[in-house]
Amino acid sequence: MEMLSTLLPPSKPLLKSQRTCHSGHLARRSQRGLTIIEVVIAMPVVLVALGMLVQMMSTGGRLRDAGREDGIASTAAQTVVEEMRNENFGSLLALYNSDPLDDPGGPGTAPGNTFNVAELAGLDPNLPDLIGEVILPTWNAGSVVAPSWQIREDVPNDLLGTPRDLNGDAVIDDLDHSGDCTLLPVVIVVRWRGRLGPREIRLCTVLAEFYG
Ligand SMILES: [Ca+2]
Ligand SMILES: [Ca+2]
After folding, report:
1. 188: which strand partners?
2. pLDDT, tens only, 85-110
3. Of the given ranges (40-49, 163-172, 181-190), which has the lowest mean pLDDT?
4. Ligand lying closest to the C-alpha of residue 167
5. Residue 156 alpha carbon to ligand 2 centre in Å
6. Separation of 198 CA from ligand 1 center, angstroms?
7. How many domains does the chain have?
8. Which domain holds residue 125?
9. What is the DSSP pairing of strand 138-140 with strand 132-135?
10. Would you tell me which of 1, 75, 130, 202 could form a disulfide with 114, CB atoms 3.0–4.6 Å apart?
């Protein structure tokens, strides 16, 4: 053993600076490796989070647009009702039916039973411009080419609440009440194709004639 120790020089202990350099190198390698692993693990998470954020922003945008469309449609329907309230009660049938020939101011001068909401009609070029409709408890006693519109109590319509008494005699009959009705149920419908697809709002009300 004495001989071996003589022949083989004793291994030199590492200097402190050498140990520090070696361990620092290992640490940097470890750190670099961990950083790459972390990036690889984090990338899908970041991508999923970004995807969810984009989806949330897109959904939020569609909902905001749909809310704005509903507001436009509601305002348009309410405007038509206000215009009807400002008209002579006895002229409402002629003003808001589909026959332009009986318009009180001359043929084609009345609003009729349809109306346009330009901001909504423009969303889909395939839809007609007239996307609003006025529905009254009417009955055509004439024909398609020569209509004769009446106000009737016996027309079944859930939205209008008919059959119902419209002239205050507590009787529901099948007569024409365009000359003596005191209540006129009205439904305003607006249909359009918006950001969330086909949409529709209905405004149901009852106009009444008041005697001063
Ligand atoms: Ca008319
Ligand atoms: Ca009646």
Report:
1. 134, 203
2. 999 999 999 999 999 999 999 999 99
3. 40-49
4. 2
5. 14
6. 29
7. 1
8. 51-208
9. unpaired
10. 130
